[in-house]
Amino acid sequence: MVCEVQYGGRITDDLDRELFIEYGEYYLKEGIFGNEHVFTEIQNEGGGAGGRDKFKYKIPQNTTAEIIKYVDYVNTVPPADNPEVFGLHANADLTFRQKESLEMINTIMETRPKESNVGGGKTREEIVQDKSRELLGKLPPDYIEGEMKD
Question: Counting C-beta atoms within 10 Å of the first and last residue's C-beta, which end of the chain has fewer, N or C?
């Protein structure tokens, strides 16, 4: 039901729908709540031999008396998800980060002050102020409510 609702809401492409249904069948099944079902196991930076350790994406066993078990697990979750968690190749993260970096660089380039020789040596701020004064001079006189009612 969740997958079909998403298809009717945000997912509009048939291939995306099929992929989302596969994710739904894998992640939303009854067995995920028992026997500490492991969704996926990935290499995690830090710890272990060679500086790498395996991290298991799972739902911890339900221990009604010990909520601290859940808190401890949440505190060990890696800060950034590995693409392998979603069944993607490790290069997907590289591609995403390159695209994100290029967008950031383009945004910085578009918003930085531009050098300008227009306006006879005036600064950018002076040019904007001159244009503002010019446009203000073209506005009609202020609306006076008392004069308009008569």
Answer: C
**pLDDT band for position 48 (cuts 50, 70, 90):** very low
Dmax over CA atoms of the chain, in Å, equals 89
Q: Which of 58, 62, 24, 61 is nearest to 38 (CA)?
A: 58
The whole model's pTM is what?
Answer: 0.43
**Cα torsion 137, 140, 146, 147: sign:** positive
First to last CA, the chain: 66
Cα separation, 115 vs 80, in Å, equals 39
As a whole number, mean pLDDT of residues 59-86 equals 77
Cβ–Cβ under 8 Å, residues 52 and 43: yes
